[in-house]
Amino acid sequence: SLPLSSADRWGVVVRSDSPEAQLPALTQDELVKLPLILPRRHIVIDTLHQWFNGGPEPLKIAGYHNLMTNALTLVKAGLGNLLCVEGSWTIRETPGFVFIPVSPVRLARHRLVRKKNRLLSRTAESFWAYAADHWRSEESDTQLSPKMSDSQNH
């Protein structure tokens, strides 16, 4: 896998008529008070374990989703608020909802991944080689600039 330089902020999508819609960010203390709809991905649950020192138990989990579009229907109905990364929200912004980032900032880092020991087509191998060279040079450029704190890497 190759680490990519991009990252997305975690946040919560709420109805625009909710009191939280006016907040600039949601703290951990505010998150535990909201009914949340979480992605049904183990990596997200593992991330929540890290945020909450061992588990998301203090959260009010209203449900889980596999498709964000379906989860927005639940938010619209007032059944909960959607925990997601900003990038998945901005590609489908919908009137009547607001994305509120989590504070302190929590980031989802991105990686380009390929299967081990699997041959790719010539075109795919060429792309992989190009991507590896591109991100290696980009990574060396970013080492000249200050890195984000570890608290932002989850």
What does this structure look like?
The chain is an alpha/beta fold and 154 residues long. The chain has helices at 28-31, 42-51, 68-76, 86-90, 122-142; strands spanning 2-15, 35-39, 60-65, 81-85, 97-101, 107-112. Strands 1, 2, 3, 4, 5 and 6 form a six-stranded mixed beta sheet that branches. Strand 2, helix 2 and strand 3 form a beta-alpha-beta unit. The longest helix is centred in the C-terminal third of the chain and has 21 residues, at 122-142. Residues 142-154 have low confidence and may be disordered.
SSE inventory with pairings:
Layout: E1 2-15, H1 28-31, E2 35-39, H2 42-51, E3 60-65, H3 68-76, E4 81-85, H4 86-90, E5 97-101, E6 107-112, H5 122-142
Question: Could you give a quick summary of the protein structure above?
Answer:
The protein has 154 residues and is an alpha/beta fold.
Strand content bin: 25-35%
Shape designation: elongated
What structural class should be given to the helix and strand makeup?
A: alpha/beta
Number of helices: 5
Major pleated sheet: 6 strands, mixed
